[in-house]
Design a protein that fits this description.
323 residues; alpha/beta; Rossmann fold; Alpha-Beta Plaits; 2 domains; four-stranded antiparallel sheet; 37% helix; binds adenosine-5'-diphosphate; binds magnesium ion; membrane; antibiotic resistance
């Protein structure tokens, strides 16, 4: 399994915080594992252990067929890592940064230049290529860091929240780059707080919280575990929210969720379209005017809420970095 990632029983404690509390992971060669979890769940710690940057207290990890603890130098040669802007030198221009990475990996000067230009173009950095990285905004640095991780294409890649702080257009472009990488055979472990991202990119998903794996499976499997469909209704008049909630709870199979500012109520149901018709009739009878109503499958967000008890949140720095 030259490109696979395998971890067993990883434990890492910082003082009295158990950042990793017995984590097992498996990423078959050529696939993408999405590691999901709220802030502080242990995602970065897991990535740091697997990329040889941090020693676990116990457990074992094998990356690209090599024992991470016994052969860290060899492991480093077959992996790429992006996150924390580790690869970016402030005092070099964007272009110089990328060329330098190429040279570090023993590419010829010509090949390094060509690769740098290609990546600058891809990550919308061509206009800023001649400026030093320290003049870059948070979003631009993140793109440069990602580009640096992609100068050479190692068989195993780790990306720690690669698209946090990117605007939607740059995020889409990165997804495309990731898809290409993976179709070329790269194995990828990706951490993210964007459930949509895991939905689009990951073959398998592993949800962690407090250093423990609390669920794993494909996106569809996780959604199925969370229970069937949801009825979602948007009432026209906020004053009708209470009545509508009462109706939905009568027909629903679990707790309802009301979002005041969008006048939206969601409830898990079983019974499909027939039940939906009954709900519509009942709402009508009770005089509740509706703007929208429908049946939908649970999203990964629903999965995340039901597993961790809270919605996915994205770091505060994000708004800043997106500028
Ligand atoms: N170097 C460190 N020293 C002390 N505590 C740490 C250190 N790194 C991480 N932690 C703690 O370990 C837990 C997991 O952190 P982390 O792996 O960064 O989570 P995530 O990346 O999922 O947000 C958190 O409680 C964090 O505060
Ligand atoms: Mg992190």
């Amino acid at each position: 399994m030259p490109g696979a990632i395998h971890a067993e029983g990883l434990v890492k404690t910082f003082g009295d915080v158990k950042a990793l509390d017995g984590v097992d992971l498996d990423v078959p060669e050529g696939t993408v594992l999405g590691l999901l979890g709220p802030n502080g769940a242990g995602k970065t710690t897991a990535v740091r252990v697997l990329t040889t940057l941090l020693q676990p207290d116990s457990g074992k990890a094998v990356v690209a067929g090599l024992d991470v603890l016994k052969h860290p130098n060899e492991v480093r040669r077959c992996i790429g890592l992006s996150g924390q802007f580790a690869a970016v030198d402030e005092y070099l221009t964007g272009r110089e940064n990328l060329q330098m990475v190429g040279r570090l990996y023993q590419m010829s000067a010509k090949a390094s230049k060509a690769r740098a230009e290609e990546l600058l173009e891809r990550f919308n950095l061509a206009d800023a290529a001649g400026r030093t990285a320290k003049t870059y905004s948070g979003g631009m640095r993140r793109r440069l860091d990602l580009a640096a991780a992609l100068v050479v294409s190692p068989p195993v890649m780790f990306m720690d929240e690669p698209t946090t702080g990117l605007d939607p257009r740059n995020r889409q472009q990165l997804w495309e780059v990731i898809r290409e990488l993976v179709s070329g055979g790269t194995t990828l472990l990706l951490t993210t707080q964007y459930l949509e991202e895991a939905d689009h990119l990951a073959h398998d998903i592993c949800v962690i919280d407090h250093g423990r794996v609390i669920a794993r499976g494909t996106s569809d499997q996780l959604k199925a575990q969370t229970g069937g469909e949801r009825i979602e209704v948007v009432v026209h008049d906020p004053e009708h929210l209470a009545t509508a909630d009462e109706v939905l709870r009568t027909f629903g199979k679990g707790a309802s969720k009301t979002e005041l500012h969008t006048r939206r109520i969601t409830v898990p149901v079983t019974g499909g379209a027939k039940l939906l018709a009954e709900v519509i009739r009942e709402l009508d009878t009770r005089g509740v005017e509706i703007d929208d109503i429908g049946l939908r499958r649970p999203t990964l967000d629903d999965v995340f809420i039901s597993l961790t008890g809270h919605a996915a949140e994205v770091a505060e720095e994000e708004a800043e970095a997106a500028k």
